[in-house]
Each structure stands twice: as C-alpha cells, then as structure tokens.
C-alpha cells in the first residue's frame, strides 16, 4: 500500500509494531483529553490567503541562533526510538542530517550519544536532558554530550513523574521489559519486528534499555541500583537550571513551557529558548493546548528568546499554524517514529520529506513568500 499521509504511516506502524510498543508511541495518558484538545486547537485555525502574489515558490529557510536551516523543523526527542527500528536513534540522526535540520536525542534513548555521533558524524545533535536523581551521573552525561559535539541542551521540565498509561499496564509493555504472558505473546505476534529489532539487539548488545547511563557504568553497581539513580528527579527546580547553566557551555532550551510566567522566568535567567509543548498530550492530561497559549507567550518573550512549539503536528498545515502563531521552529515527535516503524531510515526520511513538501505547498497556497509573511498576514 502506498503511504501518502501521516495516517497511512501510522497504520503501517500499527501493523508492524507489537501492540504495547505502538500504543506507547501513539497514545496519550489517562482519558487522553490532551490529545483531543491539541487536535481541536489546531483544527480551529484557518489562514486568510493572499492571491495573485506572483511568487513562484516560498522560502522556508530559517535562522535559529547562529545557523541557517532548510526548514523550521527539529526532530523531537522521543524515548526508545531504538525499539521502533534497530539503531533507530542513529537512523533519525542521519535523516536529520540529510534534511539539514537538528535531531534532539532523548535522555531515554536506546543508543548512547557517543554511538549516535559515530553513526551520524555530520548530524547536528541536540541533547534532551531529564535530570536524574543522581546528579553526578547527570553531569557525567553532560560531559559526554559536550565531547560528542552536542550544541544545544534541551531540558525537559514537564515530566516530574511517569504518567499513568493504563493501556500499557494492561498490554504488558514496560521498560525495562518485565516478562509477562501478555507481553511475550504481543511480541510473538510481530515476528518481523522480533527478528529485525529485538533479536538483533539480543545477539549483539543484549536486552535494549536506556543506554546513556549504561555507557558509563558497566561496572560493579548492579543494574537495579543504577535504575534508582537514573529515575527522573521529581523535585527539579529553577535552582537545577541555574546549576546546569554553570556546567553547560552550550545553549540551553527549556521544553514543556505552557505559561507566560515560566517563559518570563526562563528569559530572565538567560535561557536561550523554550519549547511551548504539552509533550504531545502524553503527560498532564488536562494541560492547555500549546496553540492556545503560544500567542501570549510569543508576545511576552518572543522578541528576546527563541520560542519553538510542538504537539500534534500531523500535516504541513499544522506546522505552519504554530509558525503563524509566532514560534520560530517546531518539533515533531510521533511522525518520524511512524516513518521509522513503516520503513526504517528511508521511511523516516520519506514522512518528514512529505511534511516539508506539505508545509511548502500550504505556504504557497496561502500566498506567503516566507514564514514571516505568513506570520504577519496569515491567521484568519
Ligand atoms: C516523547 N516525548 C519526549 N519528550 C522529551 O522531552 N523526552 C523524551 O524522552 C520523550 N519521549 C517521547 C517518547 C515518545 C514515544 C513520544 C511520542 C514523545 C515528547 C516529544 O519530544 C514531543 O514533545 C511530542 O512528541 C510532540 O508531539 P507529537 O509531534 O508527537 O504529536
């Protein structure tokens, strides 16, 4: 079957992945209200097109900090991309490199930052940071990231806990994998995934798990003790951000901001950027939708700091809506994962190319010669 839109890729991902893993990627939390609200907020926006502009095409090149990118797009950090396809994080890094956009590596990646760098030497890597309970381990990760040439640290601020996902409790999906009849049956029903992903890991590096800490601590400490150390710090605060500012010489972005007050606080601390995000509807199920708060946040801090946004981008027009509301770039999380599941590296490249093509054609239809023009004239 031809894969012509995000729904086609999503359906292909559903066919290929074990149910527990597919639902982990695809679904939200609790009653999944946030996912519906993100959709509603984007669907309510319309553009007022200009006609007869004489533009043959539109320009999507974007400057972020001191660099120019082909499109205002960043591959979002997503935990466990390496379970969706073998070496999935490295594949995403290579895709980003081909598209001329950054890839933000998740703290909860299956592949370590060092190995991703080896597999994608040209990629612009950002690192998403969850502050671990064990701060020494956290600072160790920052040092390794700096050595791996990571330019930008994205600190996720909206995940103080693991969210409640009862569907995953029912279908036996957990990390680390705890064998259950349900979970084993789920995996056994997807023999292609089992051979191409799981067995490949088992025959090479062993049972896949979060790799960033194992890369450093393959020593006397037991895995259980390590796991305690790398639980996400629930009590993360602005004081931690100040500490990280002392230790990290690159740029710092805070991800998961939904209030003007938090945006102002970040700006006043000298943070380089924020991502206005409700984590794709995966954390606080009653969180505001990013599109509903983005304009007021851009008004408050947009002139002085880089404002980005994410959540719910499934079509090029969704991405343009966030940009028209004033942010300078957008992140996409699930789309590249659907692409990876459907067709590995090529699948991820294809789905993002499709997204960029859709962004371009919508920009042309709106009569905007570039994103700035859309911002000033576009929203109806
Ligand atoms: C995520 N997201 C995420 N964010 C983060 O800061 N650290 C992480 O480890 C993860 N992990 C993760 C796993 C999976 C499977 C998904 C789908 C998402 C959130 C991600 O960065 C981004 O905010 C959302 O995915 C954006 O919404 P869309 O594009 O998926 O709708």
Automatic annotation (TrEMBL):
Protein residues bound to FMN: 77-79, 106, 128, 130, 156, 255, 277, 310-314, 333-334
Residue positions binding glyoxylate: 24, 165, 279, 282
Q: Which PANTHER family match?
A: 2-HYDROXYACID OXIDASE 1, S -2-HYDROXY-ACID OXIDASE-RELATED
Cofactor(s) this protein requires: FMN
- InterPro entries cross-referenced by the UniProt entry: Aldolase_TIM, Alpha-hydoxy_acid_DH_FMN, FMN-dep_DH, FMN_HAD
Q: Which UniProt keywords apply?
A: Flavoprotein, FMN, Oxidoreductase
Protein name, entry field:
Lactate dehydrogenase
Q: In which domain of life is the source organism classified?
A: Bacteria
Query: What's a Gene Ontology MF term here?
Result: FMN binding
Active site residues according to the UniProt entry: 279 (proton acceptor)
Indicate the family of this protein.
Belongs to the FMN-dependent alpha-hydroxy acid dehydrogenase family.
Q: What lineage, starting at the top, does this entry show? A: Bacteria, Pseudomonadati, Pseudomonadota, Alphaproteobacteria, Rhodospirillales
Any single biological process term in GO: aerobic respiration
Any one of the GO CC terms: plasma membrane
Q: Where is the FMN hydroxy acid dehydrogenase domain?
A: 1-380
Give the organism, scientific name. Thalassospira profundimaris
